[in-house]
Amino acid sequence: MSGDNSFVVVANRLPVDLHTAPDGTRTWTPSPGGLVAALSPVLERQQGCWVGWPGIADEAPEPFRTDAGVLLHPVRLTAADFEGFYEGFSNATLWPLYHDLIVTPVYDRDWWAAYRDVNLRFATEVAEVAAEGATVWVQDYQLQLLPGILRQLRPDLRIGFFLHIPFPGADLFRQLPWREEIIRGLCGADLIGFHLESGARNFLDLARRSGVEIDDAQVGAFPISIDPGSLGTGEPGGVEKLRESLGNPATVILGVDRLDYTKGILQRLLAVEELLESGALDPDQVVLIQIATPSRERIDQYQVARSQVEEAVGRINGRFGSVGHPVVHYLHQSLPKDELRTYYEAADVMLVTPFKDGMNLVAKEYVACHGDGSGALVLSEFAGAAVELHQANLCNPFDLESIKRALATAVTGLAQQPEVMRERMLAMHRQVHEHDVTRWADSFLTALEARR
Ligand code: GDG
């Protein structure tokens, strides 16, 4: 049982989504996001294969090749799989557990059964398409059992695994009723990659405590990054037009996130509200734009997070806005790449305040759009990106005073110490340019190559 693909990427989602129009016509649209941008160049170079779910339940179209020569191999998931495996175990058990219990994880045996079934199904498909001795790169928390299953089905393969979210400390992870199975599943990989050294250390520590044989070289830290060349092209004059449409405020503050309770959107709104209240920010001079992309909308905790954010936006505008001049501009939409770039370029201060984040590509994208040294980044200490972007205005998102201080310091810094702020932004810009996503993928694959 083997195919003819010598390089295979496996992820929960394919890099394209299948849509069916009311008249039954089907179209594929590229799914946005960092992972696709990160892996597409490597796959294109190697004319590899991508195995994943096409984004629609109960459908598994025939595999096909993209114009760039990448073979897309859809895996079928039923609506029940989607609920148990994806919304349930992946996003209501693992996601909160791995993000340090910002909300309480749900431990449900049926969801676990669905997670195991779907991992087995993915592994079976990969075993069929991978050539003898092929390299398989498994992505993220939805597929942690896959390396172990695949190792049994196909001992000849070279298997890498990369976790895009944080890996928690042993005391939290040990809550998971199926902790042994997950650790053994991951250890089926020749190389297990994390964004940060701390994640790698947490995992080594846990594996050893669980009596699993593992050597230091089987885990490593590979901080992901962005492709600065694919951030879209801002429309000429777009920044001026945008600022004008906002009433030419002195300071534009921006937030861009999936609407997720880990991102600390409510906290940053509360910080802005208190600064307006105390007079440290002037509602006639400041505008906050919050872009909150819809995400995982059927999960209860996401609905709660959304109502809290929307209530705060309404309250702040009610208190401090005036007709035609809201202080907070809130978009619950996904914007085209080119438009997003204009927002990044226009923002004087970028607010990135997650309680916990594997990396946070938004912070790196903002920095990449400020090659002239303009702007300021307020960044949570608990985002993986804080390790590399330590020249940012760092804050503790659990401490409202800390967010307020970082934001106020960024605003006054831009006015009073523009040269210092410029140097800091330029240093971060260099870091992101030198450590881009190609470097991330190459360093992981080189380390994987060296493993067997
Ligand atoms: C996970 C981990 C880790 C957002 N809104 C729009 C839009 N976006 C794009 C951003 C960015 C991406 O989505 C979000 O990436 P993040 O890294 O910030 O966050 P997660 O989605 O939680 O990603 C994270 C990442 O995986 C990679 O390993 O960094 O820690 O949680 O690229 O630009 N893009 C467009 N319109 C929007 O409205 N076009």
UniProtKB/TrEMBL annotation:
EC number: 2.4.1.347
Protein name in UniProt: alpha,alpha-trehalose-phosphate synthase (ADP-forming)
UniProt KW Nucleus keyword: no
Entries under PANTHER family matching the protein: BCDNA.GH08860, TREHALOSE-6-PHOSPHATE SYNTHASE
InterPro entries reported in the protein's UniProt record: Glyco_trans_20 (IPR001830)
Enzyme class per UniProt: transferase
Keyword presence, Transmembrane: no
Similarity-based family: Belongs to the glycosyltransferase 20 family.
Molecular function as annotated in GO: alpha,alpha-trehalose-phosphate synthase (UDP-forming) activity
Keywords linked to the UniProt accession: Glycosyltransferase, Transferase
Catalytic activity: GDP-alpha-D-glucose + D-glucose 6-phosphate = alpha,alpha-trehalose 6-phosphate + GDP + H(+); CDP-alpha-D-glucose + D-glucose 6-phosphate = alpha,alpha-trehalose 6-phosphate + CDP + H(+); ADP-alpha-D-glucose + D-glucose 6-phosphate = alpha,alpha-trehalose 6-phosphate + ADP + H(+); TDP-alpha-D-glucose + D-glucose 6-phosphate = 5-methyl-UDP + alpha,alpha-trehalose 6-phosphate + H(+)
Gene3D superfamilies assigned: Glycogen Phosphorylase B (3.40.50.2000)
